[in-house]
């Protein structure tokens, strides 16, 4: 899903996933621990470039790279910290339509410092736009381009699936107004959804 939006917070800047980010992303995904946490298959560098292009053009995927905020004038001077994704499943008019959220803070130096929470607030505000509950908790930069169709989505369509053992991530989404709605024992994961009226 192509967007030119750049979302700035106090600690992070979200920028569209471009070819210039692929080398670092590939380095991250060469780590077997990160691959296991993200349920990802190993790819060659060429395959990673192909994947970046497909994701950029896919109308069902929205991906931002999370930068640690430093120099606002030169975004290339900001360190890559991780990525955040939205995967659309189905059509907005379908009863079972959902928007699945994923986030990864790949760099150890940026974990447990509020980067994931701020990145999620920025992303979720952007993809829901003025739909509560996120409209009141995060202010997007002026002149932020609107999200591309079929966004925005209603917060009630947001879903996240997390390993039951990943308590820090579960607590993170609880802070954002998500609640556990289902435990899928066969996959050892919980499904969490935005509860309307929270936050």
UniProtKB/TrEMBL annotation:
It comes from the Eukaryota. It holds the Pfam family Acetyltransf_3. Keywords: Acyltransferase, Transferase. GO terms for molecular function: N-acetyltransferase activity. Residues 12-178 form the N-acetyltransferase domain. PANTHER family: ALPHA_BETA-TUBULIN-N-ACETYLTRANSFERASE 9, N-ACETYLTRANSFERASE 9. Belongs to the acetyltransferase family. GNAT subfamily. This is N-acetyltransferase domain-containing protein. The lineage of its organism: Eukaryota, Fungi, Dikarya, Basidiomycota, Agaricomycotina.
């Amino acid at each position: 899903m192509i967007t030119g939006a750049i979302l700035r917070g106090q600690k992070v800047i979200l920028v569209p996933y471009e070819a210039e980010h692929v080398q670092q992303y590939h380095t991250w995904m060469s780590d077997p621990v990160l691959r296991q946490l993200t349920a990802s298959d190993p790819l060659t560098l060429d395959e990673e470039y192909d994947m970046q292009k497909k994701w950029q053009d896919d109308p069902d995927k929205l991906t931002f790279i999370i930068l640690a905020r430093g120099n606002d004038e030169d975004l290339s001077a900001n360190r890559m910290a991780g990525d955040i994704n939205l995967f659309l499943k189905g059509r907005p008019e379908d009863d079972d339509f959902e928007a699945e959220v994923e986030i990864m803070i790949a760099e150890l130096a940026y974990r447990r410092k509020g980067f994931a929470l701020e990145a999620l607030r920025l992303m979720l505000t952007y993809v829901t736009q003025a739909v509560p509950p996120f409209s009141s908790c995060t202010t997007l930069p002026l002149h932020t381009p609107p999200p591309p169709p079929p966004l925005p989505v209603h917060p009630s369509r947001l879903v996240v699936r997390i390993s039951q053992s990943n308590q820090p991530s579960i607590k993170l989404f609880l802070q954002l107004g998500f609640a556990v709605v289902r435990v899928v024992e066969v996959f050892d994961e919980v499904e969490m959804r935005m509860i309307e009226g929270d936050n």
